Amino acid sequence: MEIYLIRHGESEGNRTAKLQGCEDFDLTTQGKRQALSLGDFFANVTIDYLYSSDLTRASETAKAVERHQNCEVVHSSEFREINLGPLQGKTREQIYEEFPQVRNKNLLRSGLDGTETDEEITRRCEYLYRLLKSVKNEETAAIVSHGGFLTIFLMYLLAGENWNTLHRPFRINNTGVSKISWNEDRLVIHYINQTHHLKDE
């Protein structure tokens, strides 16, 4: 069993330093190049199951991987970025001006009305965990998602429902690849945020 967790390529939201959440943004020209490099990286890896967030920036990245595979992308809203409610589409400066009470908070978990709750995030992590654990020993799966959700999912793998008591130590760059597996029921983290395929940037 091999599992690849992949962040999407650079999006227009990334380029303009906006918190995207569940708002939909296209890939930038650079993001499209990153996606192509990512696809080339996986050309020699046989992926049996390829999943993606249904947001454009992730979907377009996944399609670049799909080009080299014999499986089709399965899209789902379950793999979207954390819903940031009224913070979405704004820069940090705009957010702190409009919502000064969140200045010293983790913006993925601001607690503002309309944002995704810890309980809702936990449910999505559980869903992804069950899905990936169903992959057989001789199979490989990859999922293209988002930086916030993937870093929280890694915390969930380490602490289960208590993920929200941890400091979030992970950072995943655009098209950063993380590889995990399970040896029986023991989690193995092979690497996090590998970006060697972006050697030309």
UniProtKB/TrEMBL annotation:
The active site is at H8 (tele-phosphohistidine intermediate), E81 (proton donor/acceptor). The keyword Calcium does not apply. Substrate binds at R7, H8, G9, E10, S11, E12, G13, N14, R57. GO terms for biological process: negative regulation of glycolytic process; regulation of pentose-phosphate shunt. Pfam families: His_Phos_1. Gene3D superfamilies: Phosphoglycerate mutase-like. GO terms for molecular function: fructose-2,6-bisphosphate 2-phosphatase activity. This is Histidine phosphatase family protein. It comes from Salibacterium salarium.
